C-alpha cells in the first residue's frame, strides 16, 4: 500500500482535477514495491545464499 504522504498527495491532485497525475503517483510506487517484493521472493525460491557485498 502507498504510504500516508502519497495518499495525501494523490487526494490533493484529485481535488484540483489532476486525476492522471494522482493515479501515476500511486501506481509508480506500487509497481516499484511489487518489483522489489518479487525479487525477494525469487531469491527465497532459489534458496541460494546472497552474494557478499550486496544488501
Per-chain topology:
Layout: H1 4-15, H2 19-46
Helix pairs in contact: 1-2
Tell me what you see in this structure.
It is built from 2 helices and no strands. With 55 residues, the protein is mainly α. The protein has one domain (4-46). It has helices at 4-15, 19-46.
Short summary:
It is built from two helices and no strands. By secondary structure, it is mainly α. The chain is rod-shaped and about 50 Å long.
| Percentage of residues in strands | under 5%
Written as H for each helix and E for each strand, in order along the chain, the element string is HH
Q: Structural class, from helix and strand content?
A: mainly alpha
DSSP strand tally: 0
Low-confidence stretches: none
Number of helices: 2
The major β-sheet equals: none
Number of domains: 1
Query: Span from first to last CA?
Result: 23 Å
Helical fraction equals over 70%
